[in-house]
# Entry
Amino acid sequence: MSHSALKKPVHFGEHWSFNIRNDPKRLAFVLARYKFAADLGTSNRSILELGCSEGIGAPLLAEKALSYTGVDIDPEAIVAADQNLSQKSFRFICDDFMGKSYGFFECVVSLDVVEHILPEYENLYFDTVFKNLSEDGIAVIGTPNITASPYASKASELGHVNLYSQERLVGKLREYFYHVFPFGMNDEMVHTGYAPMCHYLMCLCCHKREPT
# Structure
């Protein structure tokens, strides 16, 4: 995908304007997550991002992809994404994606979303990831580690109603995939070290199980 998509000026929406003013290092951390997700399996694939917000990570996910579709429930975030990335190679949809199908994609990415899903709806969230994947598709799921919660800022904790440990996240994803590969992140550093000391969790999932 051409870098021409980024030649016009970029204007952050409300969410990222707030972060740049109040916690600028957060942008570096979030972009590092997207870069790692992109490296895991977006090359020459169709990409669906569930919970894309303002599309801050879309250029990284789309750089080597065949196509990119981002979905988010926040209309202002989707307006910002559309304004910044209006080229036909990007498609943004304002929708509550829970339970919805947007086609079959070769890679589904969802970062910083599941921790905002109430526990009673988490199965519907994972069902949605699963149903939008092609038969040989892969999923990349990222979320803050529950063990890091005591050290998180109040701003970063807003809306976190369903935090996971690595063990619980991997266990849940293995209900849907035969293979789940867990990674940890501390700031921009990705590793496979001691899970409870990770600030952020990332899982690469592949080989879909048969629906029960």
About this structure: The CA atoms of residues 147 and 196 lie 6 Å apart. Residues 25-41 form the longest helix (17 residues). The radius of gyration is 16 Å.
